[in-house]
User: Fold this.
Amino acid sequence: MKNKIKNVNFNKEKLSEYKKMAEDLVAKMTLEEKCSQVVNWAPAIERLNVKSYNWWNEALHGVARAGVATVFPQAVTLAASFNEELLEEVGDAVSTEGRAKFNNQQKYDDHDIYKGLTFWAPNINIFRDPRWGRGHETFGEDPYLTSRLGTRYIDGIQGKDENNLKAAACAKHYAVHSGPEGIRHSFDAKVNKKDFWETYLYAFEKCIENTHVEAVMGAYNRVNGEPACGSRTLLIDILRNRFGFEGHVTSDCWAIKDFYTGHMVCDTPLEAVALAMNNGCDVNCGDLFKNMKQAVDEGLVKESRLDEALVRLFTTRYKLGIMEGQTSEFDGLTLEDVDSDGMKDLNLRAALESVVLLKNENAFLPLDAKKIKTVGIVGPNADNKRALVGNYEGTASRYETVLLGIEDLVGSDVRVMYSEGCHLFKDKVENLGQPNDRMAEVKGVCENSDVVICCVGLDAGLEGEEGDAGNAYASGDKKDLSLPGLQNELLKAVLDSGKPVIVVLLAGSSIDLRAAKEKAAAIVYAGYPGARGGEAVADIIFGKANPSGKLPFTFYNSVEELPAFTDYSMKDRTYRYMKNDAQFPFGFGLGYSEFEIADEELPGECKEADLDSLEVKLNLRNKGCFDGAQVLQIYVASNEKDAPRYQLKAFKKVFLKAGEKREVIIPLSRDSFEIVNETGEFIVNKGKKYTVYIGFSQPDGESEKLLGIHPTAHDLVII
Assistant:
C-alpha cells in the first residue's frame, strides 16, 4: 500500500543527511552507551557531546505538566468544533509554546521529564464505549472524524517541514485500545478483521498516510493474543510494511513489564525486553530496557537491531535541531510567546466553537441580560476549575469557571446568586454536615432567581486514566451513565422549582440527561472547555456568540443497551452500528441561526477511476439574524449487509454572516465509498447503489426530530 503524504515539505536528501549523521553517531558509541539511550530518560554521553534527553512529554491539549501554558479545551471537546483548521491552529500554538518553554529550560540546563520536544499526543483511539474513562482524550467515536482531526493536529504540532520539526507528535495508543482501564495490563482485546481495519486501525493508517508523524506509541493491552508493544503483526507487518511508517515506536509507560506480570506471554524481564525490541519497539517508557546489554550479550537481541532503533531516535533529535552544533529557526521563541494575548484569544475561540447546544426550547436562549434581575447558578461544576481542563493538562495563569464567566459578563447589572448545590460525588459538602447539606440553599436560590443555570457533570478526578482518576470503583472508568453523588437529586430539585432552567454539562463523555431533556428550557454541553471555558459558556448563554459545536460521540440512554465493556465487536456500538435511538446523536448540535442548503450537485453515477475527483457542490445560506457557523456533514451508506448504517465521510465548517450565501465545494474520494469485508479488505462495490446524505446531521430519526430537518439523500452508482 503506497503512502500518500500530503501537505508536508519532504526533503529526502535532508532526511538522508540526518539519518547518516545518526548512523555515524551510533557507530561511535559503546554497547553500554547504546543501551543507555533506549529508555525514556536517556543520559548524557559527554565524550560524544550528547546531552541528556527525556522522551516523555505531553501535549494532549496544551503543553502539560511543566508549568504555565495555555490550557486549551480537552481533545474530545475540541473535536466538537468539527473544524480541521482549528485543530491545526491549536496544534501549532501548542508546539510554539512547547518550543518556547524548551528553549528556556535548556538555557538553565533543565532536562527533566516533561521538558523535551517529543510530545506523546494525539490520542487517536476510538471512543467506542461511553464507560471508558480516557474517552475524553480522544477525538470521539468516529474513525473518519478522528483521522481528519488527528492529521491536522499532528500537522500543527510538527509544522510543514518534515526535516525541521518544531516538535514531534506521536499517534497513540496503537492499537485496539479503549478500556477497561482496570485490566489494561492483562487484557486481550479480541477483534475480528472487519472491525480491526474498519474501526480500530483506520485513523492510525490515515494519520501516517497523510503526515510524517514522528512517533507511534504502543498500547498496554494485547491484540488477538499479542502484547501491543511487542506485536510483530502490529509493529512490523502493518505499521512498517503496510503503512510505511518511518519514525520511531515508543512503549506506553511500563507496558513492557506487563509482558511477564500481566499478559504472561514470557517469563522474565529479559525475555520481555527481547520480545519488545525484536518486534519493533525502539524506546521504552520505563526502565526495563536497562537490561538491553544483557539481552545483546546473550544473543537475544542483535546489536544491529539496537542500532536500528537508535538511528531512528537520533534522527528525530537531528530533525528537531537539538543536537550539538545545530541551530533551529525556532531558537528565538521565548517565554514571551507563552500564555500571550494571542494564545488566550485562540483559547477562547476554540472553546466557543466547541460548545454544543443540545436543547433550546422555544428559542429560550440567548438570554437578554437587560430583561433579567437575578440569575441563579447552582451545581458542583459551576466553580470547579478541574471541570474546565480534563486530564493531561498544563497550568493556566487564570481559570474562568462558569460562575466567574457569567459574573464577569453581567457585571453589576444582574444579581448573581450561587450555591455549590452538592459535592461532585459525595453525599455532603461539609464532612460534619448531614447528607444533602446544601439543598435548602439551592431551593432558596431558585426561589429568588429569574432563571437558574445548573452546572453538573464530572471532572478528571472521576473519569480518566487508571491511577490518575480518584474513581476507586472503576479505575477511572464509569460504571454507568448516571450523574454521580447527589447530582440527580440536585437536578430534580432545580427542574421542579418552577423557574426556567439551563443545564450546563461539563464532562468528557455521555451522561444520562433524560430528565433535563424533558424539563429544562435549554441544555448546553460544554465538555471540558479549557481555562477560558466559563467565559465561552457565558458568551453562548447571553448571545455574545452563536453555538456551532456538534457532538463527537453518542449520548446513549443507558449502558444496558450496549454490549459488554470488554466486547470489542462494533456491533450495536456508536452511531454507525447502533439500533436504538440515541438520547442525543453523534453530529448533533443546535445554533441560534437557521441555515439552508440549496442547489446541491452530485452526479448519479461515477466511474471508479474518477472517485478521487468527485465533489459535492451546494449553496449554503444563513437565514438567521445571528452571524454564525454551520457544519456541513456528508454520510455515505453502502446499503450492504453487515456494513455500517452509514458513515461520516466529509464535513466542512462554514462561517457566514447573517443573510450571507456562499457556494461550498466538498471533495469526496475513493475512500468515501470503500467498505471493509469480513477478511479486512477495502473494496468498492461497482454497479451497486450507494446513498449519499448531505445535511447538518446524520440521517437518523432522532436528529431529524431534534433539528426539524433531514439530510437530503442522493443515490450514486459507481461504474
